[in-house]
Design goal:
The chain is α/β, with parallel strands linked by helices. 40% of the residues lie in helices and 14% in strands.
């Protein structure tokens, strides 16, 4: 975000974060904007709702923009429409506020990329068309642009044509991927948009169909054979994509990267494809890091097509990771920057800034708490849990539990605290960001929860830790009041 000169900003916060917000804004001086801080009357920011703010916000004369805590959820457009002032959601962590205000540049645009993403259904001959459509829908939601139908050697595929038709009718682009010429010919005649792959002795198939072929060398290290096929397609003015083939580590990987570099140098205007599965599938390492590195190469060489697979269980999120990686690298290249401080989706096991508090800040916050509810925080010292009765610190939930007197006869509350302490321990051990009542952020490795799913989890957590008060969903205060009145009438 960039604040304009003489702009007056209103920062909303909760009781526990108010002092820290003052300190952070003071540390940012001088700034181009004036500001005020308003404690909205809740203990923590995550308890704020848009409906609550619509009821409590007043005296907004002179305010140009309102900044909410990052943990405050809800429809900001609804709030902005109600108060007549633009509303923005700030960072989850107050320490990130200087960066939020443009000290490191404006927020990147992650809506753009220049890579067409193919996602392969490798076992398509062995599953039904409804199963294929279901998988295609998941791949599309993960970012795939083209559904690649894999054909298996010596495996009949009687429903190939019907599969292509069904995918087209559902709105998908389709490629057919096979080592067998007959499969490619059938796929092309059925209307496949792309064929993987044609080589020098099978380029005749392109004369029989309208599909765009992916061209490969044969044998796969023979670049002159690829250049000869490219030349033939160029003379005919026929569209194609070239792929010099990525090899696995210790089976020609480094040389295969060199071939991609050579292909781009020799054919600067040619569309190129890279299939990343030989690395993501055949390397026993988290696929997020592999995708990050490969997409860095893809970005530098302006490779515009990528084939991703999810065969091995450890590559189960490879398509979603590829989508995040292409957007990250495109944004970094456009900014002329490192792929850093842009998007953290590929940081699945560690966070660059995992700790929100120092131990001294935890002790300061603990001293302000006057109610029995337990708060859980992390610092370099370990896991901290505190309420009005004091502060306990440890690195193992089993060491902390005996110190929590309020849980001894309250099984639901104990279950809730057990879940939260388990999350906190995982976050502490891995170096991840932890926020109480929130799922850990696993980046591209796990599909993000919807607002409805997050609200459901928040309600469940509330009901377990505080069964004496009714959980109020956004906008439910009036409805709950009416229900209580009806109950009282019935009793009387």
């Amino acid at each position: 975000m960039t604040a304009t000169k003489n702009e007056h900003l209103l920062f909303l916060t909760g009781k526990l974060a108010e002092n820290r917000l003052h300190k952070v804004l003071e540390s940012m001086q001088p700034v181009a904007f004036s500001h005020e801080i308003r404690n909205i009357g809740v203990s923590v920011a995550a308890l704020m709702t848009v409906q609550m703010l619509m009821r409590r916000l007043n005296n907004l004369e002179g305010v140009d923009r309102i900044i909410l805590p990052g943990l405050c959820r809800g429809d900001l457009e609804q709030l902005a429409g109600h108060v007549g002032i633009p509303v923005l959601r700030g960072p989850d962590d107050l320490k990130d506020l200087p960066e939020f205000f443009g000290r490191k540049g404006k927020a990147p645009d992650l809506s753009r990329h220049d890579v067409r993403l193919f996602a392969e259904i490798t076992e398509a001959p062995m599953i039904t068309i409804p199963e294929i459509l279901k998988r295609a829908a998941r791949y599309k939601s993960d970012g795939a642009d083209v559904i690649d139908i894999g054909c298996l050697p010596d495996t009949p595929f009687p429903h190939l044509e019907e599969t292509i038709t069904a995918l087209h009718e559902a709105g998908f682009l389709v490629s057919v991927d096979s080592l067998e010429e007959e499969d490619l010919l059938r796929g092309g005649r059925a209307g496949a948009d792309y064929l993987l792959s044609l080589k020098e002795d099978s380029m005749w198939i392109a004369e029989e169909v309208d599909s765009t072929p992916i061209l490969i060398p044969e044998p796969h290290t023979d670049m002159p054979s690829l250049y000869r096929v490219i030349e033939q397609f160029e003379k005919k003015g026929r569209k194609y994509i070239a792929d010099s083939i990525l090899d696995p580590i210790h089976f020609g990987f480094a040389d295969s990267i060199v071939r991609y570099h050579e292909l781009r140098r020799e054919c600067p205007d040619t569309e190129i494809m890279m299939g990343v599965g030989n690395l993501t599938e055949l390397t026993e390492a988290d696929t997020t890091g592999i995708n990050a590195l490969l997409f860095g190469i893809i970005s530098e060489l302006h490779i515009g097509n990528v084939l991703a697979t999810e065969v091995s269980p450890h590559a189960r999120s490879a398509v979603r990771e590829a989508d995040k990686a292409r957007r990250l690298m495109f944004a970094a290249r456009e900014e002329g920057s490192l792929p850093k401080d842009i998007d953290a989706s590929l940081l699945t096991t560690h966070a660059r800034k995992p700790l929100t508090y120092t131990f001294d800040e935890v002790k300061e916050l603990a001293q302000q708490i006057r109610d029995p509810s337990y708060r859980i925080m992390l610092s370099e010292e370990g896991i901290h849990i505190c309420n009005r009765d004091g502060l306990a610190t440890g690195q193992n939930p089993f060491d902390l539990f005996p110190k929590l007197d309020l849980l001894q006869d309250d099984a639901p509350h104990a279950f809730y605290i057990g879940v939260e302490l388990a999350r906190a321990q995982i976050a502490f051990q891995l170096g991840k960001r932890y926020n109480q009542d929130e799922e850990l952020d696993w980046g591209a490795a796990v599909p993000p929860a919807s607002e409805a799913e997050q609200a459901k989890l928040t309600k469940a957590a509330h009901n377990l830790k505080d069964r004496k008060t009714e959980y109020k969903e956004a906008g439910s205060t009036l409805q709950a009041s009416k229900q209580n009145k009806r109950k009282k009438k019935k009793v009387s």
